[in-house]
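Worked Example 4.2. Consider the chain below.
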Amino acid sequence: MAIRIDGKVISTEIKDELKAHVAELAAAGKEICLAVIQVGNDKASTVYVSNKKKACEYIGIKSLAYELPEETTTEELLAIIEELNARADVNGILVQLPVPKHIDEEKILLAISPDKDVDGFHPVSVGRLNIGQKGFRSCTPAGVIQLLKRTGIAIDGKECVVIGRSNIVGKPMAAMLLAENGTVTVCHSHTKNLAEVTKRADILVVAIGKPKMITAEYVKEGATVIDVGIHRMDDGKLCGDVDFESVEPIAGAITPVPGGVGPMTIAMLMYNCVASAEMNE
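Applying the procedure from the previous section yields the following structure tokens:
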């Protein structure tokens, strides 16, 4: 039976470390501030923003909340970002995605200063990751790396397969595994004989966006399986991209959904906020 990798426990461990560090910085007169902007009232976004505020409060980071109406224009949003970029007391800026369809998402993400891009989505942040420079790492894949390291799962020299090539998870995940000396293959909707490729993986990261798609036939015995997906089924229960029931008996280690990768995203966002205060001194 596989080891269950507990994201709740590991994310709390990270937040407690950050809380102690933030207290030290506060004692030295350094306050950390995250600005969170939400446009519209998408229910899922409201929950995520609320969780981010709670995490800030727990760690001791000040948070500024901008809750803007649905009809906010791209220009109005850009003006707020410009003001926050210029504020010395704001260390991180986060625009909760998705934004309403009439807003130019690419223009918004480009407007955030790379020095305050705690989501790690700016092309400068992506470039820094890919050439091994210091900078912000996209929070979900950075959380996956911490899950592996803190569970004692070595990446160096391992065959790593990432299913999914999104800019938010798949591509940065591949770059981060490569930076840890993994041998990385990226699979996607055009990959031929997917199961043949995934069965080579010592570490399989699944971010494909299809409920329970990855079953036991895709997984090598003893592999570590990281499930980034999250879906609500018709019965109200949550599941991931991996069919947990069929894969758990053959995996060496596996993340559950919920309680695996999910809690790590906010923990790594908090990590980036603290890093921002130190990187930009």
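The first strand starts at residue 3 and ends at 4. The radius of gyration is 19 Å. Compare this with Example 4.1 before moving on.
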